[in-house]
Write a structure and sequence with these properties.
By secondary structure, the chain is mainly alpha-helical. It has one helix at 2-90. It has one domain (1-68).
Protein backbone atom coordinates (compact mmCIF):
# COMPACT_ATOMS: atom_id res chain seq x y z
CA UNK A 1 0.00 0.00 0.00
CA UNK A 2 2.88 2.34 0.71
CA UNK A 3 4.26 1.70 -2.77
CA UNK A 4 0.88 2.52 -4.31
CA UNK A 5 0.73 5.80 -2.40
CA UNK A 6 4.28 6.70 -3.44
CA UNK A 7 3.47 5.84 -7.05
CA UNK A 8 0.35 7.95 -6.84
CA UNK A 9 2.24 10.91 -5.34
CA UNK A 10 5.04 10.69 -7.87
CA UNK A 11 2.56 10.36 -10.73
CA UNK A 12 0.60 13.43 -9.64
CA UNK A 13 3.88 15.31 -9.11
CA UNK A 14 4.87 14.48 -12.68
CA UNK A 15 1.64 15.99 -13.97
CA UNK A 16 1.99 19.28 -12.07
CA UNK A 17 4.09 20.67 -14.91
CA UNK A 18 1.41 19.66 -17.40
CA UNK A 19 -1.31 21.31 -15.36
CA UNK A 20 0.74 24.50 -15.07
CA UNK A 21 1.47 24.41 -18.80
CA UNK A 22 -2.19 23.89 -19.71
CA UNK A 23 -3.19 26.67 -17.31
CA UNK A 24 -0.67 29.05 -18.90
CA UNK A 25 -1.88 28.01 -22.35
CA UNK A 26 -5.49 28.77 -21.47
CA UNK A 27 -4.40 32.11 -20.01
CA UNK A 28 -2.52 33.01 -23.19
CA UNK A 29 -5.48 32.03 -25.35
CA UNK A 30 -7.84 34.10 -23.17
CA UNK A 31 -5.55 37.15 -23.44
CA UNK A 32 -5.35 36.76 -27.22
CA UNK A 33 -9.13 36.46 -27.49
CA UNK A 34 -9.59 39.63 -25.43
CA UNK A 35 -7.03 41.52 -27.54
CA UNK A 36 -8.56 40.41 -30.84
CA UNK A 37 -12.05 41.32 -29.62
CA UNK A 38 -10.76 44.75 -28.58
CA UNK A 39 -9.08 45.27 -31.95
CA UNK A 40 -12.21 44.25 -33.85
CA UNK A 41 -14.38 46.55 -31.72
CA UNK A 42 -12.05 49.50 -32.28
CA UNK A 43 -11.82 48.76 -36.01
CA UNK A 44 -15.60 48.75 -36.25
CA UNK A 45 -15.78 52.06 -34.40
CA UNK A 46 -13.11 53.57 -36.65
CA UNK A 47 -15.00 52.35 -39.72
CA UNK A 48 -18.22 53.98 -38.49
CA UNK A 49 -16.41 57.24 -37.78
CA UNK A 50 -14.77 57.13 -41.20
CA UNK A 51 -18.18 56.75 -42.86
CA UNK A 52 -19.48 59.74 -40.89
CA UNK A 53 -16.40 61.74 -41.92
CA UNK A 54 -16.84 60.82 -45.59
CA UNK A 55 -20.48 61.91 -45.47
CA UNK A 56 -19.49 65.22 -43.85
CA UNK A 57 -16.82 65.81 -46.49
CA UNK A 58 -19.33 65.07 -49.26
CA UNK A 59 -21.70 67.64 -47.74
CA UNK A 60 -18.88 70.19 -47.47
CA UNK A 61 -17.89 69.57 -51.09
CA UNK A 62 -21.47 70.00 -52.23
CA UNK A 63 -21.78 73.22 -50.21
CA UNK A 64 -18.58 74.71 -51.69
CA UNK A 65 -18.99 73.75 -55.35
CA UNK A 66 -20.29 77.25 -56.11
CA UNK A 67 -16.99 78.72 -54.89
CA UNK A 68 -15.19 76.93 -57.70
CA UNK A 69 -17.54 78.56 -60.20
CA UNK A 70 -16.25 82.00 -59.14
CA UNK A 71 -13.15 81.37 -61.25
CA UNK A 72 -15.35 80.98 -64.33
CA UNK A 73 -17.33 84.08 -63.40
CA UNK A 74 -14.09 86.06 -62.99
CA UNK A 75 -12.86 84.86 -66.39
CA UNK A 76 -16.17 85.82 -68.00
CA UNK A 77 -16.24 89.23 -66.26
CA UNK A 78 -12.66 89.92 -67.37
CA UNK A 79 -13.51 88.99 -70.96
CA UNK A 80 -16.59 91.25 -70.89
CA UNK A 81 -14.54 94.10 -69.41
CA UNK A 82 -11.87 93.78 -72.09
CA UNK A 83 -14.52 93.61 -74.82
CA UNK A 84 -16.15 96.77 -73.44
CA UNK A 85 -12.78 98.56 -73.36
CA UNK A 86 -12.11 97.50 -76.96
CA UNK A 87 -15.56 98.70 -78.02
CA UNK A 88 -15.01 102.06 -76.27
CA UNK A 89 -11.67 102.52 -78.06
CA UNK A 90 -13.28 101.67 -81.37
CA UNK A 91 -16.11 104.10 -80.78
CA UNK A 92 -13.58 106.82 -80.07
CA UNK A 93 -14.03 107.16 -76.36
Amino acid sequence: MLLAQQAEVSTSAEYVGWYVGIGIGFLVVAVVVVLVATILTLASRIGAQARIGIEAMDQARAATLSVWEIQHINSSATAIWRAAESARKLLGG
